[in-house]
Amino acid sequence: MKKQIITAFLCATLPICAAAQQNWKAVMRYDKQATKTALSERLSKYVTYDTTADANSGKVPSSKGQVSFGKVLAKELKRMGAKNVRISSTGIVTADIPATTTKPAPTLAFLAHMDTSPSSSGKNVVPQVHHKYKGGDIVINQAQNLRLTEYNSPQLLHARGHDIMTASGSTLLGADDKAGIAIIMTFADYLLGNTGIEHGPIKNAFTPDEEISTGIKTMDVAAFGADYAYTVDGGDLGETIVENFNGRSFTAVFNGERGVHAGSAMNSAFSDNLLMASDFHTLLPRHRRPETTSGKQGFILVKSIKTEGNKTVVKGNIRAFTDEELAELTSIVEQAFKTVKALNPKNTGMELSFKDQYKNAKEMIPSQLIEILEQAMIAEEVTPKRVSARGGTDGVFLSFNGLPTADIFAGMFNLHSPLEYADIDIMEASLRTLISTVCNWAEQPKPQK
Q1: What pTM does this model have?
Q2: Which H or E run contains 34?
């Protein structure tokens, strides 16, 4: 009943061409199994490129592997017939798919990122496809006793009969976000090969260094020229990220005097910067940490504590969906710092500073962007799920720079670890959703700017 109500509402409120929705598979002579094979083969190839982001490089792209992989994607796009294929000076690969409709439809963009997380190795990835999952454990590496279980991977409870891709045990897979790239590349290949599918102008982009939040910031959004965008960088079937955390970082600096001989420390100038940093960390509440929060709750996380002589620097992050909670968590950090300062009057200098990293883009995403996508999902027998991202996305930067962007599911799970896997069947559903979405947008007027 709930699905019927959603369908009725969206059909009533959106002027979408039913013919475009219903006939695109016939125009393509769509073969689901062949499509799954294409997605699997692309992903298997893409994950073999080591594109690990390097936060210490000071460059964009931050690793040579991203440059090499970008050239591979550009070459493939040219071969399939994409137009205006370019690689920017910062490694962003862009390409156009010309419109097949004569109507002045909006220009849509689809984006995914090329880099993988530095949390686990992305070198010498060996992909494995576990066909038609029958339930129970999936053994990734017998010698390491590394396996997917319905406990560490609860999504498997809904994956019976699906094809599951993992790495081989010592690396991450790289599904984040090469699953998204494989989906977009297959999407582009289909549209360029089936010009009878009616759609407006489409732009694709593959960006570097999403994992360290530097690549997308080099993009000239205005010159890119899209009206609306979707990143294909999400997880489970039907999920659309419609909002994200506010991100704020903090740096606490503690200076002391540890040069005094420890045996003579009492009644001296001795001041322990290590103890100050330890106390500061301890005073931050455990019930407001990442592992003790979920859903719409924010958190405080200390990322690093580094000591050099008499100076200790503590760096951390604050995450919250609302401005009110962000202010509350900031106040907690400030109070912990003040307490440490009061307990250590002999300190030789203490500083606390904050830096805003990104904002919740919820108010920047028009309802139309989500509703048209959800209508496409329903047409493809996918149940829409609106989710709040407990982190940031490239879509945040794009949305705040004039390109409203939502995020679409890509079938990737257990990110940034050797347990990472991709569900090929969910990837295939994402592909169908993209095609149905561009058909729906072909019936929308181009926005006036």
Answers
A1: 0.88
A2: helix 32-46
